[in-house]
Amino acid sequence: MKTLEIPVVKLPKETEELRREIRQFLKEEIENGLIETKCDCWLSGFSEDFSRKMGARGWIGMTWPKKYGGGERSSVERYVVTEEMLAAGAPVSGHWIADRQTGPLLLKYGTEEQKQFFLPRIAKGECYFAIGLSEPNAGSDLAALQARAVKVDKGWILNGSKIWTSGAHHAHYSIVLCRTTPMDPNNRHAGMSQLIVDLNAPGVTIRPIHLMTGEHHFNEVFFEDVFVPDGMVVGTLGNGWAQGMAELAYERSGPERILSTFPLLNELTNVLIEKCDAKGLNEVSRLISRLWTLRNMSLGIARLLEEGVPSNIIASLVKDMGTQFEQEIPEITRLLVSVIPLTDSENRLERFLAQSILQSPGFTLRGGTTEILRGIVAKGVINQ
Amino acid sequence: MSEMKDMILESAVKIFEKYSTKEVVNDAEKGQWAAELWENLEAYGMLGVGVPEELGGSGGDLDDALSILQMAGKYSAPIPLAETFIANWLLSDLGESVVEGIVTIPGQNSTEPFQLQKSGQGWIINGKAKYVPWARNAEKLLVAGESIDGTVLLVLPLEKAEIKPGKNMAGEARDEVIFDQVYIEECQTVSVDYSALTKKLYYAGALTRSVLMAGAIERVLDVTINHTNERSQFGRPIHRFQAIQHHLAALAGETAGAGIAAKYAVDAFGTNPFSKELAYAKIRINEAAGKVNTIAHQVLAAIGFTYEHTLHHSTRRLWSWREEFGTESDWEQVITEELLKLEKNELWSVITGVVKHAKKVGIQ
């Protein structure tokens, strides 16, 4: 079936050198106590200093044009950087969304001014973005969103709120999907636009929503008569839904949908090798086969996206399968080793296991719930 | 991939569509040899794809041959195509010409080497091989042999062998071949290392089963989707129900996963016939086979459980093929052996194939 065809991607030799460079850098950062390995680091590992260092090394905005601060490198090289960071559990959450999503969005739809202003800052690792999609009454049914902007002289007045906004308390800006014409019940997807909102602007309030662990990643963001200049509209007015949906293929098929609990798998493997536990390692071998398959799917989609091939269906598939895999790792780990997961433990296995278990409900929710993804996939294959 | 691929594949599909029909597959299960199917593949040069022309093949590369095999899996072709391909690869790797006609190999790894004794101008052969695909229809059997001169790769004519017919869960011929003091005038022998030959057969066998299964899984997805379009309950086609949609999505995921795993295995085999990627693929596709069958039979309900429907052509083959040339557990042990050699924190190097120094770990 054509929809499910994914190409084989052969990583060029040059990427091996890049990998070694990244691994050396990460090793030094860890050995010097500057960063700490963490599961689910792209959501919960934050370090301004680390993001800036990545920017300085050219590892943010890698594929973007040089004139906007990018490195004009291939999407495969970018893939290498992101997966190396995730495998090491490095604190990448600060710049993650801006690098993954906002940059490509602005490159595709942004005005020249927007590109010149934002892209170099993002690439330096100094400018972070949050995603403003979900609302209290618009979750899986995103088209029910109500945030709206009304035209005024030289700009827009935004009112409404966004919820479950990861990292809004660290981010400088948010891409907010809102209605710029009132909702048409017969065409709910029409009349939406994407606005770049300065999160320090008057009228913006960010309220933390603590996760069940007590950690602060989520926020609710309120907009009360926030003025957004005309120059901050992304792309075509009224085309926000289509623009936003195109972004999702990037969001759904990346290595962060596979590797969130990799530090735990690595630690489990270390422990089993030390104990010469062949039976346990057989289970790990099976996980490796799954990971190998998922990674090859994800890499293939990265190539398709670079070539401009619509990949929404297979990207949704990868997210569904990859996040289930992420959830499986702690469940299999606890059956292979007898340890008590402890959040604050000195022992890496105990700590990573606790992190993985406690973060795992989010894997199959964020970026489109499993249920929504399966609907997209099923309709995609039926319509073949 | 050769440039001929699309053309070769198109002709292969036409042949399978015409000669590997529901009736042919059902008749094969009752013992009827799919002669027309085989003869047409032969006439169009499909059997020799992936073998250089100077060795009697018809050119093209391994990738071409395996894409034909994937279609054979999709169309449940009841013929020893995988076995003939493997025999030809082994021979051409050794610089030998391919064998004319239908060749098979033992489907079980535990086969003891056949014994050869020089006798006058010919040989006396003793040996037994179980679970040999289509031995009853094949003209030749490729096995490991042992003589006073050492181990050899042996191509034995089957006319004088005793054949005890058997079949796998899909009704595909899996016969026992017995050579009891059989005198043979002439047979092709090539000196080989026994354990290397056994390993090669095992890995190549696993690759062919992975590819066949990827094809069969594609078919299961197609059949399931068609069914959910055609079958209505509660006044609408059943694909409109969320419960069914979730099944379809999971099925599509396994299909895409099996497809990409097979592609990477084929690719790896070309550069290293003992690549760990063959192990990863067999494990992953075996796993997919189980899941896919469960889902498809659940969605098709009672009709899919009948002989009348063709779903079982694919699902019974998947259940059979996943056990051939290594179960998940067999291949997991192969990977575990490599893992036990690792130093701390080297798992990621295994997955990416890039290690600190020049030494290679894991994926080769």
TrEMBL record, chain A:
Keyword Transferase: no
Residue ranges annotated for the Acyl-CoA oxidase/dehydrogenase middle domain, each copy included: 130-226
Positions of the Acyl-CoA dehydrogenase/oxidase N-terminal domain: 13-126
SUPFAM superfamilies recorded: Acyl-CoA dehydrogenase NM domain-like
InterPro entries: Acyl-CoA_DH_CS, Acyl-CoA_Oxase/DH_mid-dom, Acyl-CoA_Oxase/DH_mid-dom_sf, AcylCoA_DH/ox_N, AcylCoA_DH/ox_N_sf, AcylCoA_DH/oxidase_NM_dom_sf, Mycobact_Acyl-CoA_DH
UniProt entry keywords in alphabetical sequence: FAD, Flavoprotein, Oxidoreductase
Cofactor(s) this protein cannot do without: FAD
GO cellular component: plasma membrane
GO MF annotations in UniProt: acyl-CoA dehydrogenase activity; flavin adenine dinucleotide binding
Keyword Nucleotide-binding listed: no
Alphabetized PANTHER family for the sequence: ACYL-COA DEHYDROGENASE, ACYL-COA DEHYDROGENASE FADE34
Protein's name according to its UniProt entry: Acyl-CoA dehydrogenase family protein
Organism of derivation: Neobacillus rhizophilus
TrEMBL record, chain B:
GO MF annotations, alphabetized: acyl-CoA dehydrogenase activity; flavin adenine dinucleotide binding
InterPro entries reported in the protein's UniProt record: Acyl-CoA_Oxase/DH_mid-dom_sf (IPR046373), AcylCo_DH-like_C (IPR036250), AcylCo_DH/oxidase_C (IPR009075), AcylCoA_DH/ox_N (IPR013786), AcylCoA_DH/ox_N_sf (IPR037069), AcylCoA_DH/oxidase_NM_dom_sf (IPR009100)
Domain Acyl-CoA dehydrogenase/oxidase C-terminal per the UniProt entry, residue ranges: 208-321
Record domain Acyl-CoA dehydrogenase/oxidase N-terminal: where: 3-92
Matches recorded under Pfam families: Acyl-CoA_dh_1 (PF00441), Acyl-CoA_dh_N (PF02771)
Cofactors required: FAD
Alphabetic keyword roster: FAD, Flavoprotein, Oxidoreductase
Family: Belongs to the acyl-CoA dehydrogenase family.
PANTHER family: ACYL-COA DEHYDROGENASE, ACYL-COA DEHYDROGENASE FADE28
Name the UniProt record assigns to this protein: Acyl-CoA/acyl-ACP dehydrogenase
UniProt organism field: Neobacillus rhizophilus
